């Protein structure tokens, strides 16, 4: 299970809507349970520029990544989530998302804007295998 604070959840959905029709991307950080397992919480959200400037793919800006990493370190937290939007498809990792998965300890959150109301889902991606996980708003 991955947990997001209500504020972080709202910021993610808001960033996705603001960036539309382009994909948005960002990172979340917080205390991470061993192996990214139950108890992982996204306590702060770092919106990042999408260097791809695309409606179909995202590339997190390196400077924004470094800024997020430094701030998380200042709080003794870790980056534990990457989030992005799908503007025209389901909230499920694409082959591109799977190949870009950085860490098996991270949670991969997708905000789909395919329908009238945003849909948000979380996944783990380990060795190319996608596993859906519960997402709790706390």
TrEMBL record:
Domain JAB1/MPN/MOV34 metalloenzyme: from-to ranges: 1-135
SMART domains attached to this UniProt entry: JAB_MPN
UniProt-listed Pfam families: Prok-JAB
Metal-binding listed as a keyword: yes
PANTHER family: CYSO-CYSTEINE PEPTIDASE
Keyword Membrane appears in the UniProt entry: no
Family annotation (InterPro entries): JAB_dom_prok (IPR028090), JAMM/MPN+_dom (IPR000555), VirAsm_ModProt (IPR051929)
Keywords from the named record: Hydrolase, Metal-binding, Metalloprotease, Protease, Zinc
UniProt GO BP: proteolysis
GO molecular function: metalloexopeptidase activity; zinc ion binding
Protein name: JAB1/MPN/MOV34 metalloenzyme domain-containing protein
């Amino acid at each position: 299970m991955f947990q997001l604070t209500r504020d972080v959840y709202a910021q993610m959905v808001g960033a996705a809507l603001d960036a539309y029709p382009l994909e948005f991307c960002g990172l979340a950080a917080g205390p991470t349970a061993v192996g990214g397992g139950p108890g992982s919480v996204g306590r702060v959200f770092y919106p990042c520029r999408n260097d791809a400037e695309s409606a179909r793919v995202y590339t997190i800006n390196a400077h924004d990544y470094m800024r997020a990493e430094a701030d998380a370190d200042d709080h003794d937290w870790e980056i534990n989530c990457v989030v992005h939007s799908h503007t025209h498809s389901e909230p499920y990792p694409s082959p591109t998302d799977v190949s870009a998965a950085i860490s098996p300890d991270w949670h991969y959150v997708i905000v789909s804007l395919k329908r009238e109301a945003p849909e948000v889902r979380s996944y783990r991606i380990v060795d190319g295998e996608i596993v859906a996980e519960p997402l709790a708003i706390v």
